[in-house]
Amino acid sequence: MPPVKRKLFNLDQYQVPRGKVQIISERCKGCSLCLEYCPNKVLAWSTDYNFKGYRYPVLEETEERYCISCRFCEEVCPDFAIYVIDKKERG
Length: 91
Prior knowledge:
By secondary structure, the protein is mostly beta strands. It is built from two helices and four strands.
């Protein structure tokens, strides 16, 4: 039996939190904690390297709308290289 998808009947009355992830690439040391802890997996490795020689995370453009502004990435980053700017959207 396939799983049942549930949807709130009054979802249009609530604000869904959205965020825009900002990354300070030169602070990043490539520990990958932000990628591991992101619940919606909106971050990916960049193809470039910072001046320290580490690859840093970037927000996937196609996945940007799925950032729920949970701020887990901010909390786990040991170098304070990532932060989230809140955006408000309906539905």
